[in-house]
Structures
1.
Amino acid sequence: MDLAVLIDEADKYAKENSVEGIIGRVTRFESVKIGETHYVSIDISFEDYLKTQVRRGEYLAIRSIIPKVTIVGIVDTITRSDMLASLKIRETTNNRDPSTIMTPTTIQLSPIAEIDDKEKVRPAVSPIDPQSPVFRPKAELLEKALGIPMRGVVIGNIYSGGEEIDAEVRLDEDTLRHHSLLIGTTGAGKTTTLKEIVNDENIEKQNVIFDRQGDFVRFSISKLDDTTIIMPVTKLMEGKEIQDYVIKFIDRYSNCKDVEYTDNSVVLDCGNKIRLVPYSINFGDIMNKFHKLTPYMSLRASMAWESLIRITKNKIIKGISEYFSLPNKDSYIIFITEILPRISIENLYSGYIEFESKKLPTNKSKKTQLISTNGDKIIISTKDAFFDSEKELKLPSQTTDAIERTLKAYGEYGIFNVEGSYQKLSEKILQSRNLIIDLSWVLDYTASIEALSTITYKILSDFFDLKDKKYKEGKNDILSLLIMDEAHEYFPQGGEEVSKEIIEEFLNKLMRLGRVRNIGVIMATHVPDDLNPLILQLSNTKIIMRNELEIIRKMYADEFADLLINAQPGVGLIRSIKFSNVVFRSKMI
């Protein structure tokens, strides 16, 4: 074995795969150890130090001489010494002498990973030979060594030694399907990073964004094509027809004019065309599962809800049958076609339904507790049916109070059966390439996290059902990314006022079952402690941006604490199923 030849080969490899040639060599003056906590010492001549200006936190590579592997690591410490320090001489006059600082620089490199000549990547386990050349790796080599996928959504560039370099950080489809969590303080760059993901076109995907402040609406108007904006509206907006909500939207976001009204949306010209859907939930459609669409109903109330609604429906159907002398089958059809579409959250607990029907004869002389007539109108007392059902179930007063308190609050929010709004979301709408749910209207008019959560859960349920349908039909479907900032407001920890069971049931469906249905969830929050713990468990990619030391420690990122505590906007640490502990900066910053 000719060692001189092996050193020449290592040097040649380093030069061919470096940005600017060899900058130093593994030290000859101490043993080189590879272990769990060891660093590799590297010597850099003064001439190379002047040229390279190596920095702490920078990614460097070592080409080991005998094992023929390339080790990538991060510079942990940099040591500079005056010549007098090396000779252990103390100068008392403090004279300047430039010649004595012409000394070598020593750095300590923390190994991260290695790649062999067959491009097999593994943890840094191979011996590192003294005199092995050290270099700044080209982007392609660094990406391979760190395990970054060749193709995927680009979230930014690797941040090496305090600056961006050409190497990119990408998340491929498999990684995105395993869900992601961004953690960072206000201004750390979470929203900018999410926009980076949305704007990326390196893979075919659908973006479904729950937008609390209208940031992504503005972003989509200027940047995105094929965009649909769902505009949840409330009765507090006092609209009477679609046009009223369109005008409010145009007033807020400007530069838009209405073009065309269709059966399920309004097409607007905002420089590029977008579809707008002023939307409210039809309460009759979700009445049976209302308790599953709000985490803010107490556990006992939630447990009683399905039985309560079932008995209420049966009482109304039986009342129709007896009043009009109809068989139960016909009465059920009347309930589904005439009554259910007219049930609102308000008339369920405090009112009645009044309608005309050519199918039913009116009997002005007949009256029951639930049904009566007024001229040609039929009146159904939904309130009596509901309260009688509570009595039949013998619910404790605390439970009935909780139910009625919830219904009253939602009645005040006015998010159900809003006049002039669309109350169905078509498959075409739900399959839009960029689907933005503009929740800013709900927050502006109701200031209610409960209302926001219920609208979000309903749209997510509709979306999941569509993806589930395609999955069961065996149809290939593109990756859909569900993006939610301030995720703790949708999926809080749980407690006395919040049903942890409802939240976790929903999360299990969305994240565990969503993966095989080509759904990837990306959530962002400031404080992970406020989130339901299931999210931390099911999110296999963690992106940690500027935050307090306590939170950084809870995310087991202590070794990067000095970087993350004072990180510039857009700088973060990413850990995923494909690679770990890569520092990046978002491109859009």
2.
Amino acid sequence: MLDLLGDDPHLWDKPQLIRSAPGAGKTTLLRLFTPAALVNLHAFRDNADLKELYQRMATLGVINEGGPQLLGVFLSCARNYRILDDLDFEPARKQRLLFGLLNARIVLATLRASLQLRGLRYPEDLSRIKVSADAPTEIRAGEPGATSGVELHRWATALEENVCDAIDSFDGGELASLPGSDTLHSIGLMRPGVLTVDGRPVASHRLLLLDDVHHLTHGQRSLLLKTVADMRTGVGVWLAERFEALSTDEMLETGVTEGRDYDGEILIERFWRESANKFTNLLNSVADRRASAALTVEVTSLDSCLQASLDGTEWQGKYEATIPVIRDRVTKLSRESTLFHDWIEAQERQPGGIRDRAIGWRVLEILIYRELRNQQASFDFPLSPADLKEKTDSSIRAAAELFLAQEFRLPYYFGPKKLANLASWNIEQFMRLAGDEFEEVVASSLISKTPTLNAGRQDALLREASESFWTEIPRRARYGERVYQLLTSIGRFCRQRTYEENAPYDPGVTGIAISMKEREQLQSKEFLKKNPEYGLLADVLAAAIANNLLEAQLDRRVKGNTWMVLNLNRLLCVSYDLPLQYGGFKERPLRDLYVWMTAGYEPKKSLL
């Protein structure tokens, strides 16, 4: 997870936005820098499982042999801030109450974190915290003579209570007398030298960690982001939020906000897409550590428990049964022509195992369909085995393997690589899938003493997980029913295009694309005013992207045009027997997507 931070030397003295869909690891990343995590990491720094993490954190300057060197103050924005916008107060009063609550809670969280970092008790040891004359003016004015954590704690507690009382009273009162604050002055409390514990600075680095920013209202969030960006305190402030906080326009920019308030944004899913090997390594590490920690079974690696190939003897009979079926179809296809005679002869002599031969026959069938579509009737020259070899690439073999699995009910979704692909760059999604499989591994070990999960059972578990994932969409996403309708339509469309007999988009289609011009239309107020129905489509697409149900890629150049590609979340692909590779997509106009969203997709009849 630390790879997300890069090598920025200003991590500790500037604001940083961290965004993702639910379950990508935002909160985990933030909590890694809290006192509890750092104190434990230092205590167990010689543990083999933690050495790598300790070294990386030491490189960041967060920790050393002497102990933690960072004061990380964690605060969730999920706690009753939204109700302020429901009050019948003018905006200035609401703003004062919002900043009052935030300031009080930031101060209390800072005091708690300062003591935790030193292994002291909260609130019993507050007197060991001293406040310098450099404390923010607003705090010193609110608690004259405050020189220790005791007075500071009393001031912050009273402020929080007074703000809550003002909210409960439903009486705005005079603005000047209203409890609260006009800005986030509490961040100044974290400046160097302001707080000391037992006469020593609390830490070399300071970081305010604001989580769940998406729980604020749109106005509160905008105010907070602007206030933090405008402050020049020298204190790092990290703000983590879900994509759902962004506007439709921002989501159609794939989560990037326009403006110059922040130097950069960490978009977690995008980072992992661009660093796929790092993501796979992270998943393997997480899974292996969970497996090795199991008490009921001796397993050091989940990968080693997952059957990753169908070359074993238990699958030979199933593959062998497919060959005569496909051979018979190939013979009938080529009966009226000598065009494929040499290809069939070559396939009959193909060396290798049963599975390879079955895939070879399915490849041959696909290629014959392609030639029948392309070949002019006036030419009937036999195609050579060299032609067959040249046309047989990894993509068509992947399509043949998929077609075999779908037609003959063979496992397809199994093995560590596909398990990682099905995570769709989301750690929580991976842990859900890996957890289901590991439970089966444990059960298998207890019953048969063999901690191995065969390919068939893996496939069944992942199909069940996919169906469950689909059922969650209506309540998981904004415009949930519309999102579900659109995604099921995309799934049906992809399935039809994938399973065309000549496999024109091998190994298959797993997404759609709209032109960048049409994407811009979805962001145009003038266009949406003239075509209001597309406003709902824009909102639905944004909601699907925000929840990682569609993976967006901008400016993909194909056929002399640029496109916004929208790939289905890989776990959604399972229910439609789609491949997991990226790259297969079909361009569709906005009018088709609108129809799919409102009325559903009706598969067309086969073209052959």
3.
Amino acid sequence: MTSLPESTLTRLQRIPQVKSVWEGDRLPILGMMDNLEPEIAENSDCIIWLDGSEGFVRSMDIVRATIGPEAVVRALLKAMENPHNPAQPARPEKIIVKDRELQFFLRGVLQDLDIKVDYQPELPLLDELWVNFQNNKPQSNTHISRRLISALEDVALSLIWKQQPWQFLSEEEIIRIDINQWNIDSLYACVMGMLGQEFGIILYRSLDSLKSFRQRVIDLSESEEEGELESTFLQQDCWFLNFNEEEIETSSFQWHKRDNDVSAIFGSIHPYEGIRSLKEEEEIYPIYVALKSLGLFIQDNEEFLILDEVDLLKNEYIIDFPFDDDSIKVSVSTMPELTEELESAFDDEDDEDYLYDDDEDDEGDFSIYDDLIPAGTLVSFLEIEGDFLRFFDDKSFSCIHKDAVVSIQKKVSDQGFPAIILQTTRPKAKELINNLQQEEGVLQITFGQGYDPYEDESYELGILETGDNNHYIFAQFPQYSGQKGEKNWSSIIENWIKKVAKFDGYCGILIAMGSTGASRGNPQTKDLLHLFYCRFTSAESLGLKRLIMSLE
């Protein structure tokens, strides 16, 4: 069972305990609040905490029915720290619930707060009062000096934002920061932003939280409801720093600093607290130390961190506390073994989906599998210019005659050799190269029409045949819909095939690494690992008609 963070326990223990009894329950909304949207009413619960002795509601939250008992804890903490008016922050002497499992759960969570948790089969007062609830906005309860906040923001903007570590560090490249103070042994920094979406740093308070969150993300299927995603997100145990380049309206994250058009936003996520802003100065210090030492580490090691494969790096720093004569020794290091573990965890572990010819009466139908190319592989078309083709003399495998290779090398001086790049991570690229070599290389490639009956969508499929005569999907291109900014893959493929014709149908499959590094989508020379010479052939010559996806 996850316990409350030490800083949270200390903060809650400072709240005065009163001799009152609170009632709490989780009630299905269906049939009780007719004015709500039907989708919300059918799939949500109302969590309510009531001070029975005073006769008013301290907190009330509406959550999706699939979210676990942690939501009840979040509502209880809100009732203690930020209750609805006219209540004041307080810690009850006893709470009562009417669910046995919830009683045992709360006993474990609240054991260090001197709160008795009892069971009672009926709570009529709570059921009577909750429908009359007045939705008063909770007041802020932050106890942090303005200058300490400014010191934290300055470190975030000057050491993290200006260095932009997301340009070369992926979310799998975790940095360990050993602090050994404030009841914290280590924090695990994850850099966000390589995909150009959200920029920031997540500081996980435990390695278990980091790993379990990543596993939950992997386990979520594309069909999961929004509530499942929200519940997974709230299972993290971390502090976070987000950078926002747009105007920010007033929100529950009440303090942030602008650097031109950039804002630094801080907060905390915990399964029992949910997502909140920072509340106590004792939270500021470990975050300040972690960000400053991380920024210095990135500054000192950028030439190594930009490499696709980062070895073990370790530095120690003396970090001065802001507005204090004291300091702390901090150790910062990369975690290459964990990075490899996280990258491997995202391998495509699905069953072998395959496609088959639409005409099931044809003899010679064969299965076409999609389990060779790693999930998330980036596909692009290019021409290898001039003498650069000789770069692959000792990094190539050919299913075509040696004389054909010589002819290609002569022609390439006048025009680029057409190839298709498959870019993935280094370990997956090496595994792909090994698998193709074991199947005697790539014999030929083609493009054909594919149909997914489960999603009712059509695609242009890239298909390769290995020397062992096995067939695999290497790319799935969506049909062009004419929307602005959308790639017309059919046109790109058609132009590429014309270039292949100038080489008598010969082309190449080029395996590259770097899909999570700075060269994502634009592999550099160091990222190019192996070239497979092959031929292009039409789908008609293979007897392929439209292919239908099957999950059998």
